[in-house]
Amino acid sequence: MSYPYQIKSFDEYKSEYQKSVADPAGFWSGIAEHFSWRKKWAEVSEWNFTEPDIKWFKGGKLNITENCLDRHLEYNGNKPAIIWEPNDPEEHHRVLTYKKLHEKVCQFAHVLKNNGVKKGDRVCIYMGMIPELAISVLACARIGAIHSVVFGGFSAQSIADRLYDAQAEFIVTCDGAYRGAKDIPLKSVIDDALIGNRTVKKVIVCTRTRTPVSMLKGRDVWWEEEMKQVEEKGLTFIEAEEMDAEDPLFILYTSGSTGKPKGVVHTCAGYMIYANYSFINVFQYKPGQIHFCTADIGWITGHSYIVYGPLSAGATTVLFEGVPTWPDAGRFWDIVDKYKVNILYTAPTAIRSLMGFGLDPLQGKDLSSLNVLGTVGEPINEEAWHWYDEHVGKKKCPIVDTWWQTETGGVLISNLAGITPAKPSWATLPLPGVQPVLVDEKGDEVTEATDGVISGNLCIKAPWPGILRTTYGDHERCRTNYFATYPGLYFTGDGALKDADGFYRITGRVDDVLNVSGHRIGTAEVENAINMHAGVVESAVVGYPHDIKGQGIYAYVIYQGMHGGDTELTRKDILQTVTRIIGPIAKPDKIQFVSGLPKTRSGKIMRRILRKIAEGELSNLGDTSTLLDPAVVDEIKNGKL
Ligand code: WTA
């Protein structure tokens, strides 16, 4: 298998880019031809950003699993599709060939059907990073059910909200998950999430940690027993459901500037083609190479670059259950050495955390198999970039700094490994088909440069196949969030710079969304959780620079009647509340108790000031003249000192 649409030179990139802008339909149909379709599309694209109404490959029929599995069987059936590295390096790893993966997916698709799952039903998947997670995702896609994977670090309450929002009737989970030294009781979290739930009919529980779990008669069934029934019937195949190009493939919840996470919806054909195209071009994947993306499948990066991108390209993808620092900080390097990994794709926060352990963990690890390195999730600082380049890539591997979002389905701005130029801490150029524009607050394109650099809010002018289609159950929310700020444009929520070469550098969110260790967290979401704690009157949450996490969470809290008078304990109580409501990933790093918050006369919290104080820039707070009560600021400043 080779990839006719893999760009091979900077000149070719330029001409492909031109073509993609001048004739998007011709460009994308030329790529779509290389996939398996049950029926070809009638129209390549039809869209407006007003409603928005976006369709790609209209009239086309397909199933993404035939593209990810069946079409590889004839020539690559015995090639490894998934290499699974367990949390504990002493445990035996597993390799699933394309043939084996296809068989398991078909069998689990039977299990789903036997349990009543039908096309269009929502299936919530809450599992650790084991092959059965990828199998569940693909089995849903096989029968046309819509999967919604929830990351294992979310609390019962978060799952309950997502189950309700998606009106999910089915759950696939595990008894527990291993992550480093921890044992996470997934099924018991699901049990808590299901208290009072009336829509979920079946919970399929896969065994991993074999911690004791409660199994409710009529509702909970074991994965292994269900699979055995299918195997005993000798079933190894199931016909793939014929899907419309625009049928939903999955829902993935992500944080925005409002309190409630949004269910981003991606559809079958456009998402598949964009995940595949970006995978092949950004990483310059060559048949036979081993691709290791360290993300969790609970995030979009795992969806697109562990599962759908690599498998649709017939690649070998590494699925790692554990964490980079367990049993020691050399774990990534052990994995690279063990499987001769060629492409390593990780987050700046992981690099910064590993830098902190020095060079010892790299000693004696053979990293010579590496060809390409990648980063995603947050801006990468130059120091981390150079460390990655020198000590991991040994200065011979191009680093791709890939900018994208849950909503974009795949990478939008990045250098193409070894093909287009790299520039440390710059994501560089847009992929073909992607037309960025920087606008000012009014939505006018910024054209004026300062020292050769333009700065503005990052928008995209026209759709690419992987763009979100809606937010589940609430299309209006999709419109107001992404398409109403600047009419006619998709607004990313990020700020960016553009240099004279047309290279982009993403500077971070311009809305109230934080990026903590590469995870998106809405400040309003954290505030809502803090406010649920008895005794909290009001709170305001902002981000501040954090050496390892990129951003840390700083919470200002007005608290009444300090229980027992122990501030430290109250802080811990609040952290516990946030852990219950959202999950440990949203715990504030710092909590400052205050008696008031800086507000304007109209009652709006002036976050700009709170941000400055959290950053320690006490002498430079800017204009405070519109404040209702300027004394509040002095009090907060003094409390900080
Ligand atoms: C940020 C993750 C700078 C950005 C794929 C975006 C980045 C948000 C980069 C999306 C990058 C992602 N450089 N910032 N290379 N990649 N971001 O939805 O703020 O979890 O809006 O998708 O992460 O996060 P999400």
Automatic annotation (TrEMBL):
InterPro entries: Ac_CoA_lig, ACAS_N, AMP-bd_C, AMP-bd_C_sf, AMP-binding_CS, AMP-dep_synth/lig_dom, ANL_N_sf. It comes from the Bacteria. Pfam families: ACAS_N (PF16177), AMP-binding (PF00501), AMP-binding_C (PF13193). The keyword ATP-binding applies. It is an enzyme of class 6 (ligase). Keywords: Acetylation, ATP-binding, Ligase, Nucleotide-binding. It comes from Sediminibacterium ginsengisoli. Residues 13-68 form the Acetyl-coenzyme A synthetase N-terminal domain. One of its GO terms (molecular function) is acetate-CoA ligase activity. Belongs to the ATP-dependent AMP-binding enzyme family. GO terms for biological process: acetyl-CoA biosynthetic process from acetate. Transmembrane segments: none annotated. PANTHER family: ACETYL-COENZYME A SYNTHETASE, ACETYL-COENZYME A SYNTHETASE 1. This is Acetate--CoA ligase. Residues 525-604 form the AMP-binding enzyme C-terminal domain.
